[in-house]
Amino acid sequence: MTFEEAIRRLREQGLKRTPSRESILRLFASDGRYLSASDVREALAYEHPAMSLDTIYRNLSSFAGLDILEETELGGERKFRMHCDRDGHHHHFICMACGRTEELDLCPMDQVSALLPGSVIEDHKFEVYGRCPACSTGADAELPGSTQEKA
């Protein structure tokens, strides 16, 4: 999702376009990684020194509820990223060190469904966690030319 699409969705849902919300959405639009509220606060501290973690959490939760942001839990902490632009069902590999994501074009639900005859599966979430090539070799996580997914 782009910044402009996120702003349009806010407007459609009757939420105000505030400088804080714009800054948060610009951050997520420019960074394809999963970010915590603390990451957001740190990234925006210079621009918005008075922005509290409560304000950030409220906005992140609102954005997730509007399908602007995707949410996951990494290391016991809620993290968010801009919703994928990609159409169609897919899952992600998430680097536990740098937060980069890679799309996976597979879904294990066919096998799971076969193991649960008669069950009605209403939803699922499948994520693979590990270290990307840059982080697993000890290289700098921000190497030029890396394959960081941009949302």
TrEMBL record:
<dbReference type="GO" id="GO:0008270">
    <property type="term" value="F:zinc ion binding"/>
</dbReference>
<keyword id="KW-0479">Metal-binding</keyword>
<dbReference type="GO" id="GO:0045892">
    <property type="term" value="P:negative regulation of DNA-templated transcription"/>
</dbReference>
<feature type="binding site">
    <location>
        <position position="124"/>
    </location>
    <ligand>
        <name>Fe cation</name>
    </ligand>
</feature>
<feature type="binding site">
    <location>
        <position position="89"/>
    </location>
    <ligand>
        <name>Fe cation</name>
    </ligand>
</feature>
<dbReference type="GO" id="GO:0000976">
    <property type="term" value="F:transcription cis-regulatory region binding"/>
</dbReference>
<keyword id="KW-0408">Iron</keyword>
<dbReference type="InterPro" id="IPR036390">
    <property type="entry name" value="WH_DNA-bd_sf"/>
</dbReference>
<feature type="binding site">
    <location>
        <position position="135"/>
    </location>
    <ligand>
        <name>Zn(2+)</name>
    </ligand>
</feature>
<dbReference type="InterPro" id="IPR036388">
    <property type="entry name" value="WH-like_DNA-bd_sf"/>
</dbReference>
<dbReference type="InterPro" id="IPR002481">
    <property type="entry name" value="FUR"/>
</dbReference>
<dbReference type="Pfam" id="PF01475">
    <property type="entry name" value="FUR"/>
</dbReference>
<dbReference type="GO" id="GO:0003700">
    <property type="term" value="F:DNA-binding transcription factor activity"/>
</dbReference>
<protein>
    <submittedName>
        <fullName>Fur family transcriptional regulator, zinc uptake regulator</fullName>
    </submittedName>
</protein>
<feature type="binding site">
    <location>
        <position position="132"/>
    </location>
    <ligand>
        <name>Zn(2+)</name>
    </ligand>
</feature>
<comment type="similarity">
    <text>Belongs to the Fur family.</text>
</comment>
<keyword id="KW-0963">Cytoplasm</keyword>
<dbReference type="GO" id="GO:1900376">
    <property type="term" value="P:regulation of secondary metabolite biosynthetic process"/>
</dbReference>
<feature type="binding site">
    <location>
        <position position="98"/>
    </location>
    <ligand>
        <name>Zn(2+)</name>
    </ligand>
</feature>
<dbReference type="InterPro" id="IPR043135">
    <property type="entry name" value="Fur_C"/>
</dbReference>
<dbReference type="GO" id="GO:0005737">
    <property type="term" value="C:cytoplasm"/>
</dbReference>
<keyword id="KW-0805">Transcription regulation</keyword>
<keyword id="KW-0804">Transcription</keyword>
<feature type="binding site">
    <location>
        <position position="95"/>
    </location>
    <ligand>
        <name>Zn(2+)</name>
    </ligand>
</feature>
<keyword id="KW-0862">Zinc</keyword>
<keyword id="KW-0238">DNA-binding</keyword>
<keyword id="KW-0678">Repressor</keyword>
